[in-house]
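Attaching the record inline, Q. Sequence:
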Amino acid sequence: MKRAELILLGITVIWGFTFPAMKVSLSYLPPVLFLAYRFGIASLLMLFAFRKKAIKSETFFEGFILGATLFFGHGFQIVGLKYTSASNSAFITSLYVVFTPFIAYFLLGDKLKARDFLSLSVAIAGLYLISGASLSFNYGDLLTVLCAISFAFQIVLVQKFGEKDYPSLAFWQIFWNFVFSTIYALIFEGFALPVGITPWLGIIYTGVFATVIAFTLQVKYQKETKAHKAALIYSAEPIFGHISAFLTIGEVLSLRGYLGALLILAAIWNEIRNESH
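Structure, as predicted:
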C-alpha cells in the first residue's frame, strides 16, 4: 500500500471514531448545536490554514449549495444518532455509495447498470435486518437513510461543479454548514455552552481531526491514487465505526444486525467493484 493510501486509511479510521464521539456528546448538547460548534471551529481553523485561498468568491455559490447538502447530511445523521446506535449509524450512513449512481442519473445523466439495482436491493435487505427486521423503521435509522441520500447528493454535486478551486470550495461548504447549523440551533434548540470536558472532546475531535485535518489530507493525497481504490478504502469506515463503538461505549449488534451489516457492506463493495471497471 502506497503512502497516500495509508494516509487515506488513517482518515477512514478518524471518520469511523466520530460515531461514538458524537453519540456520547449528545448526552451534553442538542444535536444541531453540537454541529454548530464543530463546524464553527473547523471554519476558523480552515480560514487560518488557507487564508486568502479559502475565501475566493468564484466558489461562493457552489459552496453554499454543498453546505446545504452537508447540513442536511450531518443534521439527519446526528439527530438520528439520538434514536439509534453508533454502529447502525455508521453502516447506514455508508449507503451513500449505493445511492450515488441513482442521484448521478438524475443530475448528471449518468447511465445506470444492472449492478446498481442489485446493490440497492441487497442494501435494502441489509437495512431491514439492521433496523430490527421490522417494516416499521426505527426513527433514527430512517433519519440516517436520509443522511446517506444527502451525502450522495453532495458527492454528485462536487462532481458536477468540476474543477473548482478545492481549498476554497471545502472552506465555503464547511462555513455554510456552520451558518445553517447555527441558525437552526438558535431557533429550535436554544444556545448553551458545553459543560465539562466530555462534550468539548467530542467537538474538538470531530471539528479538528475529522473535519479540518481529514478534509485537508483527503484533498492532498486522494489524487495520488485511483478513485476506485480510494472508494474501497473509504468503504471500511462503518467497520471502524463499529469497532470504535464497541471499544469506547461497548456497543454490539444482534445476530440479525451483523447479518444486515454484512449485506450493506456487500452492496457497497458491489458498487466499488463497478467503479473499478
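The first helix runs from residue 3 to 16. The radius of gyration is 18 Å.

More tomorrow.
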